[in-house]
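tool=predict chain=A
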Amino acid sequence: MSENEQSGFKVCLIMGFPVKNSKSPAMHMAAYKALGIDQEFIFLPAEVKPEGLEEAINSARKLNIKGVSVTMPYKQSVLKYLDVLDDDAEEIGAVNTIVNDEGELVGYNTDWVGAITALEKKTNLNGKKVAVIGAGGAARAIVFGLVKKEATVKIFNRSKEKAASLARDFDVDFAGLEEINQLSHFDIIINATSMGMNDDQSPIDKELINEHHIVFDVVYTPKETRLIRDAKEKGAEVVYGYEMLLYQGVEQFKLYTKYEAPVREMEQALLAQL
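tool=predict ok
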């Protein structure tokens, strides 16, 4: 019997560097409380430096940690320490969720579900023209989901080479940021970069946004980024970054606990943290 089983708790972690400002523990703990399983499950932050990632994953296996939420900068580097990847995670090439199935570590990606669920609250994605700004891990998950929903995608990125690489993986179009003035031709604009997280900046000029756009910013701290404020001023519909965080967390919760997630309580807990 593992130490965690002896203590009576099934432990879940969020693992990253840094994680001190993560909103996930409060969101998951609120869900446990809402369902009355907070004496069964506990969700904790685990700050892991890059040189300690392999040891941390091996320890999670040995200590029977039930689930691990993987955040920056480990969504791709963690792959080599897992036993199995589900089909979506394998195609995306990144993992944000690990389930410990009796010592076998299974990797999933719920980021794409979070993004697509948030977007589908606003519109049917089939046939929509979508501009994705960025070509990193968040962009990979989002582009995967958009292609799955049969949207028409074009990636814009500062490094055209990186945009080209991502575009090849999912058979979509790409361009450098010097072509960003094309945005008026799109239905949806998505910022999949971290711009706006630690500064009051937007990846695009406000004049490129119009009232026909849906604008989605994956940055959730602050809740109202410069891009979101600009979009609202121009009369566009907006999708907040916290919505992606919420819905990817809902999918994680199901994988970790096998219970349906109390979405309203998770959202309230998340908003209280922002």
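The radius of gyration is 19 Å. The mean pLDDT is 95.
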